Every structure is written in structure tokens, then in C-alpha cells.
């Protein structure tokens, strides 16, 4: 989890068992258990997945209770682990993306998560099929109308406190609150009610990377037992619920899930992150009407005062006919003011330099500037644009592709706001961690759905912040 989140939590003396011993099944036993799990999933009619911090450790996010977990090190008086990249740039793991494919195939019905890292949403799991029991570090919600805002930056508070932003819905404007629970906060009914319902209906609840210690969340998987459902636990440490489980697998979650996906003949899709930013150009005539005073601003789509977390600096240059010097903007807000005569038409070139954690260093955007010509507002099919960007990123296996997705023109003051989508990360996965000779189980259809690598490879998953 975020180290910042751990520091924001209220202090309590007892956080449960930490520094728990890790266990590893032998290669042969692990293979046998992977095959058992694949068969259970194949036969399942209502699969529910319950996730903990262990599915995100391969994303560079430390867990809490493992040998090098945050609370383990705190109790031992040792320095906290260092994240391998900024929290807001963490990318979903192989397991996250496998769950996306299982949901798309109609196999996975619901995901229940104790994590606050936002990676399930970022991976592409639909919000209506996800319960985030402890909240989301990247989510704000309006208590007045209920609208949620998924951000590309970490919200500054926890404990359901008011943030510095307001709801943008018409006739609302309520003060937004963070969604991350502190110790004393009760689990929200909005998340608990569907989680309980799906667990009661589940024939398999698959627990991935969780120690199953935090109540009442840890008791949710048990609700499937009354209806004859089965619990499967994949975790490196023993849990209090192991005796209730039909199958306990001690192995790395990514390796287990990758083996299962291969046996089901489902391919793990690549992760593609598409971020959004806004460019605003504002113009006004000088008093003698000979000059245009203009300002260009590169900012967040989440509000004028929201941080633009994935852009480090902006370099501004101009077409040759304009004798402006290149400007370098390295502090937010990225804003430049200039004056030109009214008859001149030129291009403004922006080189956007990305922050750490992005998959490429920079990209370039060209903005045409013409005081006399007023562009019209337009809003194309965003989903189609996202799909094309994703397909191009996968085909070329690189990021940096960008496209205009929205333009709004205002008359007073005269201004134009354009929103761009840009591919900032792409991550592929090798779905077979075991040799083909190790995978002896017969592959076939899943829940009556014929699966093949060719079919699943043709579908690209797009992801946005």
C-alpha cells in the first residue's frame, strides 16, 4: 500500500499478527493445486474473488504483514520499505489483468478488495462489479449526490474527510470527501451490501493475497459455505480461515493465476494506461486593438487546482514566423503569457516531459493559433478514440500516442479548452510461468464458452485513470 496511507492512519497499538512466516508448496504440489483450481473455476457458475495486499506487491507496493511489510518493519524499528515507483504510477499486476479477462469472459462475477491502491479500477474491472471495502486512495465522492471521481493523483486525506474540491454536477457543487477508511470507520454499506450478496450466491470464493485477519471483511468469504460454495485461499502465509477452505495454495499469486489462465486457455491482456490533460488558450484584445494578449495553460482535467501528476515540465516553442524564444515551464500550473499582433497566424508546439513511472519520456502537441478564426466545440466518440489508442500502443508496443478527445469554445473571455488522451504506460504479460510439459490438464471450454488464445488476443483492454 501507499506509505503515505500508513502514515495517515490513526495510531493503534495492536495491528494483529505481523512478520508472518511464508510457506511455499513444492513445484509438483503447486502444479497439482493449480490444476485443481482451474477445474473449480471451469465448473463455477458464480465466481467471486476476494483480494488483499498480496496481489499488489509485484506492482512495487509494499504489503503490511509480510516479512518486509510496513507494520512488520515498524514493529521492529526498521526503516520503511521504499516504493519502486510513485504510488500514483503503480501498474496493475498479472493477477489484476487476469481478473479483467475472466470478467470479460463472463466467468468472474464480482471482485471484493481490501486494497486502497485503485489498481482494480485502473486495470479495467467495471465499478459495478467491484466492492472496495476500505476505500480508494484515488477516489473522491460527493456525499450530496453520490457521484464518484476517480483521480490520477492520490487524494490528500483519509478518514472520509472533506478535500479541497467540489462536485462538478449541475445543481450540486457539494464538498467532496475522500473514501479511504481510518481504523474507527465502519465499512460502507454501499460496498458491503453487494459484497455480502455475491458471497452468499458464490459457488467459489477465491481469496488472493490476503491474510484474512481484518474483521469484518475477512468473514465475507465464509458466507458462501451455507449455500454449498467453496473457499480457495492463495497466500504465502497461513490464515485463520485455512481450515474452512477446500483448497489452500502457498505460492506467489501471479504464478498461480498465470498457470490457471493457461489451463483455461485464456490470455492475460496487456495493461495500457491512458491519461488525460487539458490545454486552455485564453485571448483578449489590447486597448488599441492592435495586439492579442494570450495565455496558454496546461492543466489537469480534474479541476483548475488539481495537480497534473504525470507531467514534470512543459517546453513551449513556436513556428518560425514568430520570433519568440523557447519557454521552459517546470512549475505547476504550467502557464505562459505572450502578446502578438492580431494579423499573425502561427503554431504553438508543446513538448510534454513526463514524470517518473511513465513508459516514455515525452510527447509533442501542436496548437494552431488564429485570433480571427473561432473553432467550434466538439466531443467525438471517446470510447472509439481510446480503443484506437490502445490498439496502436499494443501493435507498436510503445507509449506516447495521443489524440484530441474534446474541444470547448467560450466567448467571454474568448478561450478554447482542448482535452487530450495520451498513452503513458504499456505493460505486457507472459501468461505461462510453467513449461508446457508441466501443464498436463486438458484445456477446453469454460462455462460453455469456447476459449482460445486467438480470440482473447484480438480483444484489447483500455485503461484510464
Give a description of the structure.
19% of the residues lie in helices and 28% in strands. It has a 6-stranded parallel beta sheet, with helices on both faces. The protein has a 5-stranded antiparallel beta sheet with strand order 15-12-11-19-18. The chain starts with a helix and ends in an 8-residue tail after the last helix. It contains 9 helices and 19 strands. By secondary structure, the protein is α/β, with parallel strands linked by helices. A hairpin with a 5-residue loop joins strand 11 (271-285) and strand 12 (291-299). The model is unreliable at 433-445 and 448-462 (pLDDT under 50).
Rg? 25 Å
Number of helices: 9
Q: Give the overall silhouette.
A: elongated
Provide the helix percentage. Answer: 10-25%
- List the strand order in the largest sheet: 3-2-1-8-9-10
Class from secondary-structure proportions = alpha/beta
What's the overall average pLDDT, rounded?
86
- The sequence of SSEs as H and E is HHEHHEHEEEEEHEEEHEEEEEEEHEEH
Counting DSSP E segments of at least 2 residues, the number of strands comes to 19
Query: What fraction strand?
Result: 25-35%
- How far apart, in Å, are the first and last alpha carbons? 18 Å
**What are the low-pLDDT stretches, counting only 5+ consecutive residues below 50?**
433-445, 448-462
Largest sheet: 6 strands, parallel
Amino acid at each position: 500500500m501507499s506509505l503515505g496511507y500508513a502514515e495517515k492512519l490513526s495510531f493503534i497499538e495492536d495491528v494483529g499478527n505481523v512478520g508472518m512466516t511464508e510457506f511455499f508448496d513444492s513445484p509438483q504440489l503447486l502444479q497439482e493445486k493449480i490444476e485443481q483450481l482451474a477445474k473449480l473455476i471451469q465448473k463455477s457458475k458464480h465466481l467471486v474473488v476476494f483480494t488483499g495486499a498480496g496481489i499488489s506487491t509485484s506492482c512495487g507496493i509494499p504489503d503490511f504483514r509480510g516479512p518486509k511489510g510496513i507494520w512488520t518493519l515498524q514493529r521492529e524499528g526498521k526503516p520503511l520499505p521504499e516504493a519502486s515507483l510513485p504510488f500514483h504510477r503503480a501498474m496493475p499486476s498479472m493477477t489484476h489483468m487476469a481478473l479483467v479477462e475472466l470478467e470479460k469472459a463472463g466467468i468472474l462475477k464480482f471482485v471484493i478488495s481490501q486494497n486502497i491502491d485503485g489498481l482494480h479500477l485502473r486495470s479495467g474491472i467495471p465499478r459495478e462489479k467491484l466492492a472496495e471495502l476500505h476505500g480508494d486512495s484515488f477516489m473522491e465522492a460527493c456525499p450530496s449526490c453520490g457521484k464518484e471521481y476517480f483521480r490520477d493523483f492520490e487524494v490528500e486525506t483519509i478518514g472520509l474527510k472533506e478535500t479541497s474540491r467540489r462536485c462538478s454536477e449541475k445543481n450540486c457543487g457539494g464538498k467532496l470527501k475522500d473514501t479511504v477508511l481510518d481504523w474507527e470507520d465502519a465499512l460502507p454499506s454501499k460496498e458491503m451490501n453487494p459484497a455480502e450478496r455475491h458471497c452468499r450466491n458464490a459457488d467459489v470464493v477465491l481469496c488472493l493475497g490476503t491474510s484474512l485477519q481484518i474483521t469484518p471483511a475477512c468473514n465475507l468469504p465464509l458466507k458462501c459455505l451455507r449455500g454449498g460454495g467453496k473457499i480457495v485461499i492463495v497466500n504465502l502465509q497461513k490464515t485463520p480461515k485455512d481450515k474452512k477452505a477446500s483448497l489452500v495454495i502457498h505460492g506467489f499469486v501471479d504464478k498461480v493465476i498465470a498457470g490457471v489462465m493457461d489451463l483455461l486457455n485464456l490470455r492475460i491482456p496487456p495493461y495500457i494506461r491512458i491519461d488525460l490533460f487539458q490545454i486552455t488558450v485564453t485571448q483578449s484584445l489590447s486597448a488599441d486593438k492592435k495586439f492579442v494578449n494570450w495565455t496558454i495553460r496546461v492543466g489537469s482535467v480534474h479541476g483548475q487546482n488539481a495537480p497534473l501528476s504525470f507531467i514534470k515540465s512543459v517546453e513551449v516553442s513556436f513556428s518560425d514566423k514568430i520570433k519568440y524564444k523557447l519557454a521552459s515551464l517546470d512549475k505547476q500550473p504550467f502557464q505562459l503569457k505572450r502578446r502578438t499582433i492580431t494579423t499573425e497566424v502561427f503554431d504553438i508546439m508543446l513538448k510534454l516531459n513526463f514524470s517518473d513511472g511513465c513508459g516514455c519520456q515525452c510527447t509533442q502537441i501542436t496548437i494552431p493559433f488564429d485570433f480571427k478564426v473561432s473553432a467550434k466545440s466538439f466531443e467525438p466518440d471517446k470510447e472509439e478514440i481510446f480503443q484506437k489508442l490502445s490498439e496502436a500502443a499494443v501493435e507498436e508496443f510503445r507509449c506516447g500516442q495521443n489524440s484530441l478527445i474534446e474541444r470547448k469554445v467560450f466567448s467571454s473571455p474568448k478561450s478554447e479548452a482542448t482535452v487530450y488522451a495520451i498513452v503513458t504506460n504499456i505493460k505486457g504479460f507472459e501468461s505461462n510461468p510453467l513449461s508446457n510439459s508441466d501443464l498436463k490438464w486438458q484445456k477446453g471450454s469454460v462455462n460453455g464458452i469456447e476459449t482460445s488464445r486467438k480470440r482473447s488476443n484480438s480483444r484489447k483492454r483500455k485503461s484510464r485513470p
